[in-house]
Amino acid sequence: MKTSLVIMAAGIGSRFGEGIKQLEPVGLHDEIIMDYSIHDAIAAGFNKIVFIIRKDIEEAFKERIGNRIEAVCARLGVETAYAFQDLADLPEGFTVPEGRKKPWGTGQAILAARDVIKEPFLVINADDYYGKEGFQLVHDFLVEKATATDFCMAGFIIKNTLSDNGGVTRGICSVDENLMLTDIKETRHIVKTPDGVSADGVSIDPEGYVSMNMWGLSPEFIEVLKAGFVDFLQGKTKEESNPLTGEYLLPMVIGERLKEGKATAAVLPTHEKWFGVTYKEDKPLVVESFRKLIASGVYKEELFSDL
């Protein structure tokens, strides 16, 4: 069965400072975080890789990872494809508001790949390390249980997804007794505190589930995103739709489908520890973390040599 890994790599990375944070070397041989995600996805059974990038970073992206991964995938019989997120890629009848510079968000990022996503797919961020478990859990769900309206999400524990160098934004999840997602709230400025974890000074449960944008979705969901984007641009949704700053976010779209009873989303618990380069100060810890994973045998020094 064909299943795709869709990597959202078009983010500007403003908090990281100069440079393209998704392309920062972190491995023994200058691998980037995406290398490890692609390795883990292929090992889990995904057989198509879709990169969502911006046109202006295409050359740097292909030089840094794209050409190399295409060669690896060709050897392993894994398909690759590209899609380009563009501020001006809007539904018919809409134009970019004057002064708008901010990307339209993760919902529009997935829509950028609408012509290449034809199978059940897993969405991830380019600059997050998820660990192996989530890839296997989501792949198995997509193969065995996914339908046009039954989705899944790798559920990470809040305390395992924080940065030592500043606040992060996470989708805090509410789940029922069957580990089905009932609500998701995009929450900003989540930080470690001496007493645990807080968001904007309000204490939150460090053992709760959060979304790290690791969603298992059906190809039919693309049509939901198309219709929702029109509503968003018309200001008909609950999402913040300021024409200059509003973002059409994937978790919010899914959350609305759940509330309307038009979809379900299973939360697949993973206790893997996230790390990523949200801030430039995060990089030394990420580099050291990969050193430890290699030393403990989680990965080979030659990353793809075991596939």
How is this structure best described in words?
The chain has 307 residues and is of the alpha/beta class. The protein has a domain at 4-12 and 23-152 and 211-243 and 273-306: Spore Coat Polysaccharide Biosynthesis Protein SpsA, Chain A (Alpha-Beta Complex). 28% of the residues lie in helices and 25% in strands. It is built from seven helices and 13 strands. α1 (33-44) crosses α4 and α3 (106-112) packs across α5 (221-233). The longest helix is centred in the N-terminal third of the chain and has 19 residues, at 58-76. It is globular.
Task: List its traits.
Spore Coat Polysaccharide Biosynthesis Protein SpsA, Chain A; 307 residues; alpha/beta
Mean pLDDT: 92
Number of strands: 13
CATH superfamily of the domain at 4-12 and 23-152 and 211-243 and 273-306, called what? Answer: Spore Coat Polysaccharide Biosynthesis Protein SpsA, Chain A
The level-1 CATH class of the domain at 4-12 and 23-152 and 211-243 and 273-306: Alpha Beta
The first-to-last residue Cα distance is: 18 Å
The geometry reads as: globular
Quick one: biggest sheet?
11 strands, mixed
CATH architectural grouping of the domain at 4-12 and 23-152 and 211-243 and 273-306 = Alpha-Beta Complex
- Count of alpha and pi helical runs: 7
* Class by alpha and beta content: alpha/beta
In CATH terms, what is the fold-level topology of the domain at 4-12 and 23-152 and 211-243 and 273-306?
Answer: Spore Coat Polysaccharide Biosynthesis Protein SpsA, Chain A
Helix share bin = 25-40%
